[in-house]
Design a protein that fits this description.
Largest sheet: 5 strands, antiparallel
Distance between the termini: 31 Å
Order of helices and strands: EEEEEHHEHHEHEEEEEEEHHHE
Shape: elongated
Structural class: alpha+beta
Number of domains: 2
Number of strands: 15
């Protein structure tokens, strides 16, 4: 069994064993600019194997020799659906043993990254197994990839991940087209046990009433009240009554603008809060 080893090599590619454990994905920051990376949620991941780095041009060419002629040497850096499927097809014997061979899900990538087991290149966008997503509502909490396709142009795209060039602990996700090979896109592989269904997921809806109350209170105390206090404290108390409409509008705008970058932190979705579908 693969799980009896801490490191395995298949087709000249080294896979490192990652122990089962818990990680968190997303952010709890409340500002609207962080909405696509919310909610922060726990992910409980079973034991799996992952490549320490993305597949090199040499490794890709060894798996798919015809890539040499396509790219005039070993400068190949581009991943699309066809390349992914061809590479995964080379691991048929592992798949027959009951494992999945694919790109990592964002939870699997994050777990290995937290443990310092993988290295990343800030110049490349890693193609993940997850379909493109707009936020983490409905995300899987067992480390399995999120395959529910979005509607519209993003329906055929995969999620991509890029590490910050100066801060290796910061990373951003994006959408990567899979109908063509884009330069500077790369692939990492995992060997992971198949998950049982139903899959635990992040609830699809947040506490709407609580969010509205938070927004109203923040707008009141950050925008509206200071808007009226400032002229009073500066000795223009009469303007607080005569120009109340302008002050009210200005306070609402100020509260709205501050909401882009700051709001109270949102609660982390725990494993026990997961829904099963």
């Amino acid at each position: 069994m693969l799980t009896e080893k801490n490191q395995i090599q298949i087709h000249g590619i080294d896979f490192l064993k990652i122990e089962s454990g818990l990680t968190t994905v997303g952010t709890d920051k409340g500002g609207w600019v962080y909405a696509s990376n919310r909610p922060k949620h726990e992910v409980s991941i079973p034991e799996y194997f992952i490549t320490k780095s993305v597949l090199s041009a040499q490794q890709l060419s060894n798996l798919i020799p015809e890539l040499n002629s396509l790219d005039e040497g070993l400068d190949f850096t581009g991943i699309d659906k066809d390349v992914r499927e061809q590479i995964i097809g080379k691991f048929a014997d592992i798949i027959e043993q009951g494992y999945e061979v694919r790109a990592p899900s964002i939870g699997e990538w994050k777990r290995a990254h937290d443990l310092g087991m993988i290295s990343s290149s800030p110049n490349n966008v890693e193609v993940l197994a997850d379909s493109a997503f707009s936020n983490f509502r409905g995300a899987h909490m067992d480390g399995s990839p999120r395959l529910e396709a979005m509607i519209g142009p993003l329906s055929s795209q995969k999620a991509g991940l890029q590490v910050h060039p100066r801060n290796q602990n910061e990373f951003a996700t994006s959408a990567v087209p899979q109908d063509r090979r884009l330069r500077n896109t790369s692939l990492r592989l995992v060997i992971s046990p198949k998950r049982e269904v139903p899959t635990p997921k992040v609830p699809n809806n947040s506490d709407f009433a609580k969010n509205v109350r938070t927004e109203l209170l923040c707008t009141l105390f950050i925008g509206i009240i200071p808007s009226f206090l400032i002229p009073v404290l500066r000795g223009f108390g009469s303007y607080a009554t005569e120009g109340w409409a302008n002050l009210l509008f200005g306070g609402i705008v100020a509260g709205f603008v501050t909401g882009a970058v700051w709001r109270p932190r949102r609660p982390t979705v725990k494993i026990e809060d997961a829904i099963k579908e």
